[in-house]
Design goal:
Chain A is an alpha/beta fold. Chain A is 48% helix and 11% strand.
Amino acid sequence: MKCSVCKKPAFVKVRYMKKSYCKEHFAQFIESKVKNTIEKFKLIDEDDKILVAVSGGKDSSALLYILSKLFNNVVAIHLDLGIGEFSRKSKEAVKELSKLCNVELKIYKLKDMVGFSIPEIKLERRCGACGLIKRYLLNKIAYEEGFNKIAVGHNLDDELSFIVNCLISGDIKQLSRIGPKTQTKGKLIGRIKPLYKCYESEMKLYCDAVGINYVKEICPFSKGAKQAVYKKALDLIEEKSPGSKLSFINSFIKKIKPLLPKEEVKLNECKECGFMTTSDVCSFCKLVKRIK
Amino acid sequence: MKCSVCKKPAFVKVRYMKKSYCKEHFAQFIESKVKNTIEKFKLIDEDDKILVAVSGGKDSSALLYILSKLFNNVVAIHLDLGIGEFSRKSKEAVKELSKLCNVELKIYKLKDMVGFSIPEIKLERRCGACGLIKRYLLNKIAYEEGFNKIAVGHNLDDELSFIVNCLISGDIKQLSRIGPKTQTKGKLIGRIKPLYKCYESEMKLYCDAVGINYVKEICPFSKGAKQAVYKKALDLIEEKSPGSKLSFINSFIKKIKPLLPKEEVKLNECKECGFMTTSDVCSFCKLVKRIK
């Protein structure tokens, strides 16, 4: 198997493209895919100040690496969740990566910011709570530090499994909000997903191709979620018909999403923290109260 | 494991219902589910004359059995496709079944009706051609014999795999036509799907429970279709979260379908055969020309 570009021995076969690539040209292929996504969906403007949320995992690591190649206006933010060895490894990986990318890195400790770390949460839905906390704090940091966009490492598989979940549960509201970007509204900073058209498997391969040392362990608290099964189901379909996942997201964005009712969400400031919420007190403040 | 109704030893556990049933009460459960589907979607009126298309497989066999218990106005139609031993076994199974159900059975030979049988079709898409031929001939028989509805054995898994196919390929037109019934339009007889809320696995169990001797072999020409992979993918999801398939179809019918554009399809009579088509000559007439 030879690289379709340079004819050197191939590193990977991209079945849905009917092409093979060496490491160098696979990296180029992914980078140009991300660039196209950014241009097509107008994710980044020249004068943006972009916070890249980096956990140390494959997706956000690849994201930081690619964005730092394409743009100057990015800063990496890492939240230290205080999950023992897992968080220690994550922090080291992110430090190494930001040096490799020559990007400013800011590390925030959850414990310093809210007074507890993830292992201290005694709720059943710890993973849900962790997601909420991370979203809230990244937004708070972005707002307070003057960033106008938050880039996150959501890949194609993340997005599709979320779509499947909404389709099965009939959650049209959530379905209508799905997309590669959200707009900034008051203190709620817009989020962008430059890896929107990248397969999860491609992100792993990309890290290997360019030599990113990402954290392979999964969080010790992560539970076998429904989302993981949706991803497996989508993998089955992709295996049989390469390109199905891309076709699915394209169909959704072009054909289904425009049909969904666009409900204007009314946001006001939380009575406790002042950040945006749809009710009186935001979910984060409610959660922190429950935890403490 | 005991039957949730009568406490006798259970024959099957229905996970999404969190119930177990003996053969008798499982059959009752399925029959009442079909009855509810018929009532909810107003599939059958008292004065209907219903043609039940019976192949001899588990779905259409279960359908005939259940409809013959619930209604008097049903006649079984079997198309002999001329596929050697497979068709011979199918015909025998249908004959036995119609005796069991005490229902009139009419058998039509494809060879007599169109001059060829399925093995003589030399097209790549033989399965697609077979589907088209069956739909056309069943409609022709229904129209000419004065039936006003055609009942088909499509189950929940059939419908969902079709929905998934449309979602992935972005076929909004097909998606908007999906549902448990179509209306009669001129010479195009309305079709109903009383097994709309029944899992494929339930149909097999139902046949075993009531003692229907259905054909277990699959057609020797059937190809590993995409649809089969969609079904496997849906099985994975159902296995993890029982009830997902039912939730998916309910969400689709209640929440997604009403959002889809309702395009009025303009039908006229085929210049060759006089049956309904969207173009000058219907797909069946075109196909027969190609085959001959």
